[in-house]
From TrEMBL, chain A:
One of its GO terms (biological process) is transmembrane transport. It comes from Glycomyces albidus. InterPro entries: ABC_transporter_permease (IPR051393), MetI-like (IPR000515), MetI-like_sf (IPR035906). Keywords: Cell membrane, Membrane, Transmembrane, Transmembrane helix, Transport. This is ABC transporter permease subunit. The lineage of its organism: Bacteria, Bacillati, Actinomycetota, Actinomycetes, Glycomycetales. Belongs to the binding-protein-dependent transport system permease family. The chain crosses the membrane at residues 73-95, 115-132, 167-187, 229-248, 276-297.
From TrEMBL, chain B:
This is ABC transporter permease subunit. One of its GO terms (biological process) is transmembrane transport. It is a multi-pass membrane protein. The chain crosses the membrane at residues 21-47, 91-111, 120-141, 153-176, 197-219, 260-279. It comes from Glycomyces albidus.
Length: 307, 293
């Protein structure tokens, strides 16, 4: 079997590695290079200007700074809310019920809930964007929430939720949570399935209620999964853009109230023709993602429990 | 309830049942609330898609008096939803086949063969899962432009494959490692070469893993939005489904036919919905599989 080993390995790796290098690795590497120039993107001439783009980036009060602030908010709120809801629902659907024999199982209707909760995960962002834009629409465009609010006599925002500076960011985050919770519910469910049932049964015999079993058994044993979920959601939070592009006025408005880092990169790269500046923002985003992953892996580590 | 467990010590039984009842009520309520939060917007957009334009704006909560199927006809013909479907299928036949073939080949060699650079290639692929795609969009645009593949399906297929490889390779490498070595050794004793071993022994054995990751890639590529938006921007007729819907949403602003937009949205949801209901278990397993060691 030694015979023809290297030709075989080469023949299997050449295409995937070649394609990946050409279309993924090199463009990323080029982005780093571009970020050190003053290239507009449309001509072929450019000069290297060192780190000027990075310095100017933190002076851009019109787009970049609001975007950094909003992405920062999403980066905190999205993981916290999604993980909390995901854990709670997963616990209820898998372990929250008690049968007559005292066995641990999900509450009634678990299967139905699981199927429903996960559904938004398979919808494209385009569909989710169109759907929720209409849900949030102003009353005279037939919005669902505004319509329902005025039907029960509550004052609804006149221009809908997305054209209102006070609500737009929260509205976007709510949609992000809405579409992500099902995924983390299923994710935590499969992790919970690997926790031995006798641990719970022993705890119940000792008189533990559901709050105690959750905080004293489930959560500590799920720590690794929570950490993984945190990293995933952080990356999702940093990449938020398409929803903002689809739903909000001026793709980040009104008045930059829902501007996010991804959207600012988009605007500078494809609308303003400032490719180098856009790349610099992208590089900052990349290092933010990298730092987050490293930090949460480094400091989130806990003692491993084998069972 | 816990109190009915026969071995439960009597001394601790007092507080538990009350906590149980209140908690049950509260948690069942929350569980249903979230289910309704998912169902209501989706069901509402389906209902809305059957309303005439005037009623969509004036009567958001009402039901349509008659079903306005012409919204669907309009979306299919004027909105081009039909051809966006075909475009997407045309791209995905090649991109999914390519992703799975190249991904399986790379993963198999990385998982099963020792050679110099093995680790580097593996981490090179795995690192790709972390890159924010924005960073590469413009250089990628230029790369395709230089080789005249911008605004072509060939270019889009190649890009889909390249951007699906990191997760596919990462997942399948782990999967190929778990396969038993005995069968492979027996095949080698019987005189199978490296290629036959892969195509006739290892690939069939890896079927569960291949199916899970194929589902993952189909959903991912079907829903892809950012890449076609940048790389297929010139000719609106060539748009893939999610991009076509976004165009429709944009046009709806001045053509004023929201009924057709929502009908188009519902049509785009139908194949995904059917696939989801039928393969619900596999899809959930496939989408979350990569995260579970």
């Amino acid at each position: 079997m030694k015979h023809g080993r290297y030709p075989f390995i080469l023949s299997f790796l050449a295409l995937p590695v070649g394609l990946y290098t050409w279309l993924v690795i090199l463009p990323f590497a080029q982005a780093f290079q571009i970020s050190l120039t003053d290239w507009s993107g449309s001509t072929n001439s450019f000069d290297y200007i060192g780190f000027d783009n990075y310095v100017n980036l933190f002076k851009d009060e019109r787009l970049v700074l609001p975007a950094l602030r909003h992405t920062g908010i999403i980066l905190v709120v999205l993981p916290v809310v999604t993980i909390a809801l995901g854990l709670f629902f997963a616990f209820m659907l898998n372990l929250g019920g008690r049968s007559r024999q005292g066995r641990i199982e999900g509450v009634r209707g678990s299967k139905f809930h699981k199927v429903v909760y996960f559904f938004p995960q398979v919808l494209s962002v385009a569909i989710i964007g169109i759907l929720w834009k209409q849900v949030y629409a102003p009353e005279n465009f037939g919005g669902l929430i505004t319509g329902a609010m005025s039907a029960v006599g509550l004052p609804a925002p006149v221009n809908g939720f997305l054209a209102d500076k006070r609500f737009v960011l929260a509205a976007v985050i709510a949609v992000l949570v809405w579409s992500a919770v099902g995924f983390y519910l299923v994710f935590f469910s499969s992790a919970m399935a690997s926790i031995p049932r006798d641990l719970y049964e022993a705890a119940i015999i000792d008189g533990a209620g559901r709050f105690q079993t959750f905080f004293k058994i489930t959560l500590p044993l799920l720590w690794d999964s929570v950490q993984t979920a945190w990293i995933y959601l952080s990356i999702v939070a940093l990449d938020v853009f398409v929803l903002v592009y689809m739903m909000t006025p001026e793709r980040g408005g009104p008045d930059a109230a829902s501007e996010v880092v991804g959207g600012v990169i988009w605007k500078y790269a494809f609308n303003h023709g400032e490719q180098a500046f856009a790349s610099a923002i992208g590089v900052v985003l990349f290092f933010a993602a990298l730092t987050l992953a490293v930090v949460s892996l480094r400091f989130g580590r806990r003692e491993q429990i084998e069972f | 309830m816990a109190t009915e467990t026969p071995v439960k010590p009597a001394s601790r039984a007092s507080g538990a049942p009350r906590e149980g009842v209140a908690f049950n009520f509260f948690s069942q309520g929350l569980l249903w609330l979230w289910s309704l939060l998912v169902i209501i917007p989706v069901a509402w957009i389906v209902i809305t898609s059957f309303k005439p334009t005037r009623q969509i704006a004036s009567d958001p909560l009402g039901l349509p008096e008659v079903l306005h199927w012409e919204n669907y006809a309009n979306a299919w013909t004027n909105g081009n939803i039909g051809s966006y479907f075909l475009n997407t299928l045309q791209v995905m036949v090649f991109s999914i086949t390519g992703t799975m073939l190249l991904g399986a080949m790379a993963a198999y060699v990385i998982a099963r063969y020792q050679f110099i650079g093995n680790r580097i290639i593996y981490f090179g692929f795995a690192a790709g899962m972390m890159f924010p795609v924005f960073l590469a969009l413009f250089p990628l645009f230029k790369t395709l432009q230089n080789v005249a593949l911008l605004n072509t399906y060939t270019g889009l297929v190649l890009v889909y494959i390249a951007y699906s490889l990191p997760f596919t390779v990462f997942f399948l490498t782990a999967f190929f490692r778990t396969l038993p070595t005995g069968v492979a050794e027996a095949a080698i004793v019987d005189g199978a070469g490296h290629y036959r071993l892969f195509f006739q022994v290892m690939l069939p054995m890896a079927r569960p893993g291949l199916i899970a990751i194929t589902i993952f890639n189909i959903i991912g590529q079907w829903n892809q939005f950012l890449l076609p938006l940048v790389l297929m921007g010139r000719n609106p007729d060539d748009a893939v489904i999610s991009q076509g819907l976004a165009n429709l949403a944009l046009r709806q602003g001045y053509e004023g036919d929201p009924g057709a937009l929502f009908a188009g949205t519902v049509m785009a949801m139908i194949p995904i919905f059917i696939a989801y209901v039928v393969f619900q278990r596999q899809i959930q397993a496939g989408l979350t599989a990569g995260a579970i060691k």
